Amino acid sequence: MLNSTLKEQIRKLPPDSGIYIFKDSRHKPIYVGKASNLKNRLNSYLRTDDPRIKKMIDSANILKFIETESDIEALILESQLIKKFRPQFNIVMRDDKQYFFVGFTKNEMPRIYLTHQLNGDKYIGPFTDGSALKTTLRFLRSVFPYCTCTQSHHNYCLNYHIGKCLGFCCLKSSPSGKDRKNYLNNIKSIEKILSGKKNSFVKELRKEADDFAKKDNFEKAIELRDKITKLERIFRNAKIIKNSDILKAHRSGLGSLLKMSKPIIKIEGYDVSNIQGLHATGSMVTFVDGQPNKNFYRKFKIQTKNTPDDTAMLKEILERRFRHSEWPFPDLILIDGGKGQVSTAVKVLKKMSIKIQVIGMSKNERHMGHQLIIPGRKTPLPLTKLSPADKNLLLTIDSEAHRFAIEYYRKLHRKPFR
């Protein structure tokens, strides 16, 4: 029987994606699992008739869990922990041949494939969920294209035309040294991410982008920052959310947290994009009932600043936006930024005698997760404290504002080169 302490822990688990670890009395992991909803998954263990699960539960004395931002992150972390600890019941409850591994061939232009059997190629795994793994690879391929053609050919393949293949990697003609290097970089990027090194990899990309920007190679800097944005969007929004859940959450849960007296129907998200202050742009995206409404999207070319000052640029954007009284006002404003940006937004609205709730979103000090900046609250609120629907809605709005700002920045930046 599961002891009362563990039962109480399970009842208090968050309804978020993550990893759970059962340990024995010697603190040795005996089972590692992942869940898109920790609370529901562990509660199902209390009602199971599976003799293997019952035996595992009877052997457990300690329960640990780690929340993750998405199902994909949970999938990768679970794989790392199973490989590290090789828990007894992970082996008992799933035959080794049924685990999935991601294979990387050793030829000049490596191919990526899934398998249950290991031979002489390089592998990352084990992974327990084949469906989630295929979805993860599909997402990663949209950022780091690679070849899946079984034979070389003379013309570009379909995957090349839809952005999933670099093209030259599957042609009979040999690729140039630069092309091969780009392809190998994509393969190595996927290896790092699937090996659980996503955060350090993103830091490398950011540093590389900054270095290119300092050398005035803005095209390459933008390309790398686009990759970072797409990758982070994948890890934020990997979970499928029902529209009804989003609508219910942002009308009640989020409004209750912010102590708002009316439902949150319309949210505006703002972001600023520039490199060293050049070609600075701002974006405003609008979500109504949890869905983007592009009729209310607006973009701003910064007029008053040409040096890096995101706070001053945000001030200009908000002042210009709220002079348009014909544009319907939102119920909530989400700023991409920390306390400085939120404070600026509050001051602008107060000066213009407009009462709208403002919140900000930023990375925490360790850049390991996101947090909300709420006026009047001394400390930031970790996004993990929100319901899954609230959390994913705000992350989606923030990502969309970022995408829209970068899209306009790129358009302005490229004009002088035409």
TrEMBL record:
Keyword terms, alphabetized: Cytoplasm, DNA damage, DNA excision, DNA repair, Excision nuclease
Domain UvrC family homology region profile positions: 184-349
GO terms assigned for molecular function: excinuclease ABC activity
Pfam families per the UniProt record, alphabetical: GIY-YIG, UVR, UvrC_RNaseH_dom
UVR domain residues: 199-234
GO cellular component, one term: excinuclease repair complex
BP GO terms, sorted: nucleotide-excision repair
Annotated CDD domains: GIY-YIG_UvrC_Cho
Domain GIY-YIG, first and last residues per copy: 15-91
Entries under InterPro entries matching the protein: GIY-YIG_endonuc (IPR000305), GIY-YIG_endonuc_sf (IPR035901), GIY-YIG_UvrC_Cho (IPR047296), UVR_dom (IPR001943), UVR_dom_sf (IPR036876), UvrABC_protein_C (IPR050066), UvrC_RNase_H_dom (IPR001162), UvrC_RNase_H_dom_sf (IPR038476)
SUPFAM superfamilies the record matches: C-terminal UvrC-binding domain of UvrB, GIY-YIG endonuclease
Gene3D superfamilies named among the record's database cross-references: GIY-YIG endonuclease, UVR domain, UvrC, RNAse H endonuclease domain
PROSITE patterns, per the entry: GIY_YIG, UVR, UVRC
PANTHER family the record matches: UVRABC SYSTEM PROTEIN C (PTHR30562:SF1), UVRC/OXIDOREDUCTASE (PTHR30562)
Name this protein carries in UniProt: Excinuclease ABC subunit C
Species of origin: Yanofskybacteria sp. (strain GW2011_GWA1_39_13)
